[in-house]
Specification:
With 511 residues, the protein is α+β, with helices and mostly antiparallel strands. Helix content is 41%, strand content 23%.
């Protein structure tokens, strides 16, 4: 039996999966991503430990396929901004800086003053921020110039996996789009930005579209993973954009709601000609190159969407953990049952999911999360429902402003990720957005998208449309309940009014 192998290098988990060419899951494995929290906003991954986890993951997938399983191709999706420096022997000079590592923060204001936000956005589709590769490299230039001088390449997470599998240096357009070094119009590295930053363009690997063969598994990679020598290694892409490909969100009027630790909206479009770049920038959205079709995407996020649930669960739900253990249930099922006891509007309780600052459409990294309207009669169930409602309200603002910016309407959303298993959240969100939300049969859309890009690279599919038509299947469609939508109108209005007040209060607290 023939399979496409996909890898997903995520913030929380590493995932590996094998898929048949018609889209069936043959094997799926995951392990925790081995992050090292250094405190004070710093976090890294040890390159050797990460590779060890990934090669073990691949071996587990292959073991489940059995001796007759044949791997046709390998491709990886990954977080976009994390990266490391390696020397000319391919050995790591640094740990992999996590995308959320804050040490590049100190150079952001300087870059804005000297180069400019508007000019940066006009080239890269990104508002200057510490998460992007450029700021990490500038930090190294300032604090560890001796290491930077020895560096041969800067590799993002996907690029590093390509190198470990094939020995080749390559990246992909959507991953490069998250470095703040890439010209998304010309689809090449920006010499203007690189020269201004005082960096060597030779540090950066060649950039390719998604789904292109860039190498083949080496003897060393074969010995480490169990994959035969000579299997094509193809470009995958940025995790959210790979997920968008898998669900068909790669043309105008299509969008993906990716529910994870951070919740992302990916909206595809095919031209920037009519786009008001300054409006998009000021609203906090980013732009980049899609993994397929030569198109573009707009990306918006609720930075602490799923994180809000995890935070509340871990800090306040000890009793529910005990109940779940006694009843043999998932803790999430118990939490959903609790939230279901609370009325629409959570008894006048509002939650703002800004534990990691505010994203679009009113970005403010200093903004903080909050419960508003808390009274002594509110229960944990009310708080949980308020969390779910706040997540839905914030995503609704992200979506409607994005539609306005692109002058595109999305009549139906595709949704993927762990949050789609939360029935109450999905019902609330469908009511708040007042449009259907379709959940695909393969929930690991990022992983699946990476595998499909491998299939695209080796010619299993004629093009992205053929790949989607042959593999996409629907698991469930949440249809909006008009009565519920009407009931949420007042909650939406209240949320929209209190949001700017939270940002004002956050500014006072930060000062």
């Amino acid at each position: 039996m023939e399979y496409l192998l996909g890898l997903d290098i995520g913030t929380t988990h590493l995932k590996g999966g094998a898929f048949t060419t018609d889209g069936k899951v043959a094997a799926l494995k995951l392990v925790k991503t081995p992050v090292i929290d250094l405190g004070r906003g710093r976090a890294v991954y040890d390159p050797d430990t990460l590779w060890s986890s990934i090669r073990s993951l691949i071996r587990q997938v292959l073991a489940e396929l059995g001796p007759n399983g044949k791997i046709l191709s390998i491709a990886a999706a990954s977080m976009g901004e994390a990266g490391l420096l390696i020397d000319d022997q391919g050995k790591p000079l640094t740990p992999i800086l996590a995308w959320h590592d804050t040490r590049g923060e100190e150079v952001v204001d300087e870059w804005i003053t000297e180069f400019g936000s508007r000019q940066t956005f006009a080239i890269t589709g990104l508002e200057p921020g510490y998460i992007f590769s450029l700021m990490k490299l500038l930090w190294y230039k300032r604090h560890q110039p001796q290491i930077l001088s020895k560096a041969h390449k800067w590799l993002c997470m996907m690029d590093y996996i390509i190198y470990k599998l094939s020995g080749e240096f390559a990246t992909e357009y959507s991953v490069a789009s998250r470095t703040m070094l890439f010209d998304i119009h010309r689809k090449n590295w920006s010499e203007e930005i690189i020269d201004f930053a005082g960096l060597d363009i030779g540090l950066l690997p060649d950039a390719h579209p998604g789904g292109k063969i860039v190498g083949y598994t080496t003897k060393a990679a074969s010995a480490a993973t169990g994959v035969p020598v000579g299997v094509p290694v193809c470009t995958g892409g940025h995790d959210h954009i790979c997920g968008a490909f898998a669900v068909g969100a790669f043309g105008p009027g299509h969008g993906l709601d990716s529910l994870g630790t951070a919740e992302s909206l990916v909206m595809a479009y095919d031209t920037m000609a009519a786009l008001d770049m300054e409006n998009v920038r000021s609203r906090g959205y980013s732009l980049g190159c899609h993994v397929v079709g030569g198109g573009q995407y707009l990306l918006g996020a609720v930075n602490a969407s799923g994180l809000s649930v995890e935070w509340f669960k871990d800090e306040f739900c000890f009793q529910e953990f005990v109940i779940a253990e006694k009843q043999g249930k998932s803790i999430y099922d118990v939490l959903i049952e609790e939230a279901n006891k609370s009325p629409i509007g959570a008894g006048g309780l509002i939650y703002v999911p800004q534990l990691r600052g505010a994203g679009p459409p009113n970005p403010d990294p200093r903004s903080r999360g909050a419960f508003l309207g808390l009274r002594d009669y509110h229960s944990r169930g009310d708080c949980l429902r308020a969390v779910f409602e706040g997540m839905a309200m914030q995503f609704g603002l992200v979506l409607t402003e994005a539609e306005t910016a692109l002058k595109l309407e999305i009549p139906k959303l595709q949704a993927s990720g762990g949050g789609t298993k939360n029935r109450i959240l999905m019902e609330i969100k469908t009511a708040v957005l007042n449009r259907p939300i379709e959940v695909p049969a393969v929930q690991e859309s990022t992983l699946f998208g990476a595998a499909l890009l491998g299939g695209l690279g080796i010619g299993v599919y004629r093009n992205e449309h053929d790949a989607w038509k042959r593999t996409y299947k629907v698991s469930q469609v949440y249809e909006p309940n008009q009565q519920l939508s009407n009931a949420y109108e007042n909650v939406r209005e209240v949320y929209a009014k209190v949001l700017p007040l939270i940002q004002k209060a956050s500014k006072i607290i930060a000062e």
